[in-house]
């Protein structure tokens, strides 16, 4: 079967400039040559979150590095949806799933939040950042979401900008349905989604969150979802109703 032409897509820190060269590090060189079996002269795709997406040709492959010659702009950089995700870290596997799915669903920044009932494995932001890079490479994003160090819930609420809407996922909320709540928000371009820990928020935490001017309380239906399911469901609704799933023709 014929292979897809540009099957390797990598995130790189370096500037991407037409007709210049960039160096892939040891891990990327290994991935390109040993895992993907690319050879000198073959193409790959690079992005850095700033300069758009570029086609490059492999010039040299060594054990510790590889050289790529940048040859063609494939997609210019565009402004992306401004969505932050606040989530209370859960067990390692579920946290990884949250990072991966939130990246695929287009969040810009991920901020782990310490709540009263957060009961997480030790979380390494650096490791999660690598998972976000991998998900961004695979999902053809032009950026990689930034993973912040864990912050306290109070601090997160205090630092929330006035013009950012906070979508608060409340597992026992019996107000308006999610589509009406999200669909009726007007004039907002900055969003944040807040999902709690497996043990849920305390009543006191809920009160504090709901007393924020920026908060829009959201029910994701009559069943209690796992945190990772709630993240996927809330981001799906947000992208469909307010984000980049909407067609430009609407
Ligand atoms: N143990 C808690 C449930 C926590 S679920 C309890 O029994 O109440 C983890 C998080 O997912 C919640 O804090 C909430 O943010 C989100 N969530 C789960 N189900 C939801 C629902 N039906 N609607 C909105 N948010 C939900």
Which key terms come to mind for this protein?
12 strands; 7 helices; 5-stranded mixed beta sheet; single chain; binds S-adenosyl-L-homocysteine; 2 domains; alpha/beta; 250 residues; Ribosomal Protein L25, Chain P
Give structural notes.
With 250 residues, this protein is α/β, with parallel strands linked by helices. It folds into two domains: 9-75, Beta Barrel (Ribosomal Protein L25, Chain P), CATH 2.40.240.20; 82-249, Alpha/beta knot. It is built from seven helices and twelve strands. The protein has helices spanning 26-35, 92-104, 125-138, 153-159, 178-183, 203-210, 227-241; strands at residues 9-11, 21-24, 43-47, 53-61, 66-75, 82-87, 109-114, 146-147, 151-152, 164-169, 190-195, 215-218. β7 (109-114), α3 and β8 (146-147) form a beta-alpha-beta unit. The model has no long low-confidence stretch (mean pLDDT 94). The protein binds S-adenosyl-L-homocysteine.
**Average pLDDT, all residues:** 94
Largest sheet: 7 strands, parallel
| Hetero groups | S-adenosyl-L-homocysteine
Corresponding CATH architecture of the largest domain: 3-Layer(aba) Sandwich
**Which residue ranges are poorly predicted, with pLDDT under 50 across at least 5 consecutive positions?**
none
Number of helices: 7
Roughly what percent helix? 25-40%
CATH topology of the largest domain: Alpha/beta knot
> From the helix content, strand content and strand pairing, which structural class follows?
alpha/beta
Number of domains: 2
The CATH superfamily of the largest domain is known as SPOUT methyltransferase, trefoil knot domain
Using the alpha-carbon principal axes, give the shape.
elongated
Percentage of residues in strands: 25-35%
The CATH top-level class label of the largest domain? Alpha Beta
Distance between the termini: 39 Å
Work out the number of β strands: 12
What is the succession of H and E elements? EEHEEEEHEHEEHEHEHEH
